[in-house]
Design goal:
The protein has one domain: Ubiquitin-like (UB roll) (Roll). Helices cover about 25% and strands about 35% of the residues. It contains 2 helices and 3 strands, in the order ββαβα. The chain has a 3-stranded antiparallel β-sheet with strand order 2-1-3. Strand 1 (about 5-15) and strand 2 form a beta hairpin. The chain starts with 6 loop residues before the first strand and ends with a helix.
Length: about 80
């Protein structure tokens, strides 16, 4: 049996004290779960923006030199 797939969600929030936190990334099975986790960590925060973040596919094998160069160069 496979574990449920998690998606990464990005948030921009304003904390209770008024500080803005950009690019806060949280994993969750769905958006409501990610938001619930966020609210557990930042009680009383205001969510200014939320989005689903595409994650890289998981690799089946080891990384090779060409893959590493592509990763570093951004291709």
């Amino acid at each position: 049996m496979h574990a449920p797939a998690n998606t990464k969600y990005g948030f921009r929030i304003r904390t209770r004290s008024g500080a803005i936190v950009d690019n806060l990334l949280i994993f969750g099975r769905d958006e409501p779960e990610a938001e619930r986790k966020l609210r557990q960590m930042y009680m009383g925060c205001e969510i200014l923006e939320k989005r689903s973040v595409a994650s890289a596919s998981s690799r089946a094998g080891p990384i090779n030199y060409e893959d590493l160069v592509d990763l570093i160069s951004g291709h």
